[in-house]
Fold this protein.
Amino acid sequence: MTQLAARLNPRTTLIIGLILLAALSRLLPHPPNFTPIEAIGLFAGAYLADRRLALIVPLVAMAISDVVLGLHSGMWVIYGLIAINVALGFKLGPNPTGARIAGYGLFAATLFFVVSNLFVWASGGGLGYTRDLSGLVACYVAALPFFQWTLLGMAVYSTLMFGGMALLRRGQARLST
């Protein structure tokens, strides 16, 4: 129990709370693909010192919201991409610059677009894409309007989560001086 209590210090509790809030925001009305999925992984990986928690917390948060929203056959792909984003967050580190957050965010959102739509095409998804290069291209072209929302979601949620943490740190530094 002491080990768990050490992990759940006020900073860790705050970070977990931000991740849970972001995941629960998926339950609010939003444009398609305007979600916190990619930002959650980056944020957890960057700020949760315990790497196991960094991986578990966003996956559990997503699972909670998925139970409400509905389960689907591509969940393993989405959860795998969240895990990759957590690993990217490890590389990003706890003191990222805005440019690094933007770069990693763009990479994560693009990877999400490429891999999730490759899965849609490969699984058939009942959408009628042919199993050839023209079907794959058609799948990606059809998904392009959603990609803008993915990018915007990454930008907004990264700004809220990373920016919120930066503001909290500044406020804390001012209080301690």
Notes: DSSP finds seven helices and no strands in the chain.
